[in-house]
């Protein structure tokens, strides 16, 4: 029984202002493929057949530096060229006439690391952060590939491509769908949490600045915007209540709904990005600080902040479950006072709301980013102590912007993450 794979073409609704990001991603992706093809074709006489590993070690750093692509897309570009070169070399050996592969068709390869596939939309990695595109699904899908495979939970997304149709200026996802056997589904949900490695993504939540900051240096959501909307709403509500008419009362009602919807949309978007970040870094766990008593603990926290934080955690928990990622809460004690570099903990460490300066080792970084790394470490410690220390325990690590850190403080640079390679402490701004 071979894998049953079906390709389904679905049109994407790309926001106007993000089309250019996809075009630039395609240009840089093809650049990686063509650079690799030239390199591989040039050394086909040296190596009998070129391997992906050789190409990656020869070209990865260079291409990562020359493009704005995530690590995963650079790898996909390299691999695509190597596959084409291999079949070219095979044709040459058969005496057929062929030449160095060249890539100019509009196409980008996406897998589960560079894209998050949903049944109604896809989140794609680009040169400018992620872009979320809804599928344009026809009214009646019964009997069509979209209905049979794309919307069918018995099929899962495999490596797919995004393509562009120039005459109609439309983007399409060519989704490759593979049928999942039932026992396979059960296995993958029980496997993921145990046996394997453990990598924790830490999340620091805030009442101003960015709503959520991750231990990988992603700044997600806009708490200032939420506060602003809330204040405007309360101002309008105050003046309306003074007029006291029935129509004023009704518009308060509808505004409540509108505000509520906006807030929920914002929290959904933030939760999607937290999960993208967790998947991009191969995380098995997401750690939040414990939200109990947050209004007394956190300066400036209002009732609606506590509501928003709880709701965000719920969304993340719900979505994480489908990806086999666990969500846990840790005690917030000292997470904002501890230096994530040397461990020195002191209340004077925090110079201002958003700047952390260690009094011992002079380490400086964004205060929320520092806290998120401590939150990741706390969960890691408790996972570690919960593990029966039978020598060959699974490795435990925190997901950081350019690699992982284990409990002994050993840092491992990672090739498979989306972040920059040079510094662990350079926060990455997302749109
Ligand atoms: Zn320090």
UniProtKB/TrEMBL annotation:
Pfam families: Cas12f1-like_TNB. Keywords: DNA-binding. Residues 309-375 form the Cas12f1-like TNB domain. The keyword DNA-binding applies. GO terms for molecular function: DNA binding. This is Transposase. It comes from Haloplanus aerogenes.
